[in-house]
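Researcher: Good morning. I'm working through a list of sequences from a screen, and I'd like to move beyond sequence-only analysis. For each chain I'm collecting a predicted structure so we can compare shapes side by side. This is the next one on the list. No need for commentary yet; just the structure.
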Amino acid sequence: MVENQNSEVVNRMSEELKEGNIAALPKNVQPNIQPVLISNPVRSCDVMNDANNSTTSDVVIFTTPSNKDFYLVAVWLSVDKDVLNDSTFTFIETSLGGEVESLISLAHIPLVATHKEIALSYPTPIKIDRGVPITMKGSFAAGAQRKSGGIVGYTVDTLYKK
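Model: Good morning. Structure tokens for this chain:
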């Protein structure tokens, strides 16, 4: 059996596990504690947000926490527009690795009544930058339009401080 002699690692594990200092455990129990790395833990989604808009302004669906990592697992978008609406594109964007990226989009023909919707789920969650908005966008100058979008994801406390 491998014995961990690095007190910094042992104390950090204890702190992260919220079990208190491992040295406080009885001496006969300490050698039996085995750290285990779970590479793909089962996670519960704790963020489910949506937004609706019938104006030309952008709408923030969710702003990622600045003190936790946020992983996106699903996104959806729908658009309803009348025959007088001149818009051509509606999308949801955010920042990934410092770059603004589109997560999902719908193209539509101007001056044609339309109902479109799309939903994506990601088998590998996408890590979104900290403290950034996830925004639904799409503008028009004429006619009526209603756009709706939403996201599902989860937050994770960082195991090791950067």
